[in-house]
Design brief:
Length: 295
């Protein structure tokens, strides 16, 4: 299968590329610069979709970059890096003489309203209560191609855990030094997924000819995981204590109040359709996932 991947050079994109190539698929990236096995976004807009069997979009500026101040300019960048890239790919698919068979978008569980008790499946409502939920709604709406023969799948991803990037990369050093701990109360749900499972779900969506619609990209044990549990498990995997909670005010000071919600609140998300589709999780439980990552 020839697969075109937007955002293929990022943390998840590199892992997906490795998995797809190991399964015998050809991968071309869409990124800022063209090169070997790579075309630019400008080239895509100008020349249209190269011949391919499937398209995936993973593009998106890191929302939780602590070095970027939360403000209008950064918000515009976050929206553009997700919504505009998705629109560009969707238009290229719609205009293609030979459209691909599959079109997969990876969005986020920010679609669902944070709650300490509610559990959300792929059929649950959401998408219109704060900046992030509206972002996911716009992002997924940008992927719609009415009348297209391309089979469409949206994977709503939780916090991606993996070696060499993502959420873990910013947490490892404090925890290694014994300075780690839960954020705020630590009671908030922590919807997570191992990077091998997120890329596995995307690959499963590409290779399963009948699969379409929404899939929650979270671990089956994710609904029972709190931020405090995550801190304890990460500390245990590193054989360190997790005694120092980070107060909520400090999280808000670093990230800004609106962005801090992503860390201080959370959603209990269930991968109901993902499991029903026949996907088998490689890392269904947190301790196994973290041991693999920090090994």
């Amino acid at each position: 299968m020839r697969v075109l991947v937007g955002g293929g050079t990022g943390f998840v994109g590199r892992a997906l590329t490795q998995l797809l190539r190991s399964r015998g698929h050809e991968v071309t990236h869409v990124s800022r610069q063209s090169g070997k096995d790579r075309i630019s976004w400008e080239e895509l807009s100008r020349s249209g979709l190269p011949l391919c069997d499937a398209v995936v979009n993973l593009a998106g500026e890191n929302v939780l970059n602590p070095f970027r101040r939360w403000g209008d300019a950064f918000c515009r960048e976050i929206i553009s890096s997700r919504v505009e890239t998705t629109k560009t790919l969707a238009k290229a698919i719609a205009d293609a003489e030979q459209p691909p068979r599959a079109w997969v978008l990876v969005s986020g569980v920010g679609y669902y309203r944070p709650s300490p008790t509610a559990e959300y499946t792929e059929d649950s409502p959401g998408g219109d209560f704060d900046f992030f939920s509206r972002l996911v709604s716009s992002w997924e709406a940008a992927a719609l191609i009415p009348g297209s023969p391309a089979r469409s799948v949206v994977v709503r991803s939780g916090v991606v855990l993996g070696r060499g990037g993502g959420a873990i990369s910013q947490m490892l050093w404090p925890f290694r030094l014994g300075l780690g701990g839960p954020l705020g109360s630590g009671l908030q749900p922590f919807p997570w997924i191992h990077i091998q499972d997120l890329t596995g779900i995307v690959c499963h969506a590409l290779e399963s000819e009948c699969l379409q619609g929404i899939l929650n990209g979270v671990s089956p044990s994710s609904p029972a995981t709190s931020n405090g549990t995550f801190a304890q498990e990460l500390a245990a995997a590193l054989r360190r204590p997790a005694l120092l909670p980070v107060p909520a005010w400090a999280v808000r000071a670093v990230f800004g109040a609106e962005r801090a919600v992503m860390l201080l609140e959370g959603q209990r998300v269930v991968p109901k359709h993902t499991l029903e589709s026949g996907y088998h999780f490689i890392f269904p439980d947190l301790s196994g996932a973290l041991k693999d990552i920090v090994a």
